[in-house]
Amino acid sequence: MEEFVPYNLTTFPLDELERRIGLALDPIELNRLRAAYEFAECTHEEKKRNDGSPYFFHCARVCRILHEELGIADADILSAALLHDVMEDDRSLTHDILTYNFGMYVAYIVEVLTKDLDKHRSDPDAADYEQVAALQRASEDCLLIRLTARLDNFRCLEYSLKRNPLTYIENTINRYLPLAAESENEKLQYITKMLLQEKNKFLG
Fold first, then answer.
1. What are the pLDDT digits (tens) for 49-61?
2. Does residue 63 lie within any of the structural domains?
3. Could you tell me how far CA 87 lies from the centroid of its own chain?
4. Of residues 142, 149, 129, 128, the one with CA closest to residue 180
5. How far apart are CA 88 and CA 48, in angstroms?
6. Could you list the residue range(s) of the whole structural domain that residue 64 is in?
7. What pLDDT, on the 0 to 100 scale, is given for residue 23?
8. Under a CB-based contact definition with an 8 Å cutoff, are residues 178 and 132 in contact?
9. 48 φ, ψ to 5°?
10. Segment among 70-74, 172-176, 182-186 with least mean pLDDT
11. Per the domain annotation, does 144 fall within a domain?
12. What pLDDT does residue 109 have?
């Protein structure tokens, strides 16, 4: 009988990622995706989430949701998903460093998804609205990764991930979901549906 592992302690091991997606990518793209995985894992190595789980598990699961649930096999999108929080954890990282290692589009997505942590600590609502405004001007891939990251967080709420889960749910539904409301992107529509389902499960 397979041992039960709580969702917040699940991840997407590199060998599994390579096995699942390897045939869909050429060797150069696969190597770049592998490098993004290892770079993000190293950057978040010492960081834990509020629920005690390794922070990188979140990044790996965002990549997993995009690939397994949405069928995405694009190296740029999956690399950006893995790297979406690295600039917040390592402030020495720059656009040029990310561009050199992972390409301009990956660097662009990561920059869009990077919050001002100083502002977030002093005025979280202002930082949140700043992120929403950035997403309004950005490509849909940025919004897709942001909403997928929020979906993963929704799925972790029962493990005490957020100090104020109801506020987190409310802000996601009221601030972020409207950005996807008018889009015909089926992947955004799927993530929206999943977020609403998780919200209903958590709130009963």
1. 999 999 999 999 9
2. yes
3. 13
4. 142
5. 14
6. 10-197
7. 83
8. no
9. -115, 155
10. 182-186
11. yes
12. 98
**3 domain residue, yes or no:** no
Alpha-carbon span 131 to 175, nearest angstrom: 10
Cα–Cα distance between 124 and 109 in angstroms, integer? 21
CATH number at residue 137: 1.10.3210.10
Q: Are 141 and 163 in contact (CB under 8 A)?
A: no
**Contacts made by residues 169-176, CB under 8 angstroms, sequence distance 24+:** 169/199, 169/202, 169/203, 171/128, 172/199, 173/199, 175/128, 175/129, 175/132, 176/132, 176/135, 176/143, 176/146, 176/147, 176/150
User: Is 0.85 topped by the overall pTM?
Assistant: yes
Place of tokens 């740029």: 76
Place of tokens 């699942």: 20
Give the count of domains, the chain: 1
Q: What is the pLDDT of residue 35?
A: 98
Please, are residues 120 and 127 in contact by the beta-carbon 8 Å criterion?
yes
**Residue 2 resides in a domain:** no
Does pLDDT of 46 surpass 70? Answer: yes
Residue 164 three-state SS? coil
- Which has more confidence, 39 or 118? 39
Confidence category of residue 1, pLDDT binned at 50, 70, 90: low
Between the alpha carbon of residue 18 and those of residues 15, 80, 116, 144, the distances in Å are 5, 16, 33, 22
3-state secondary structure of 161: coil
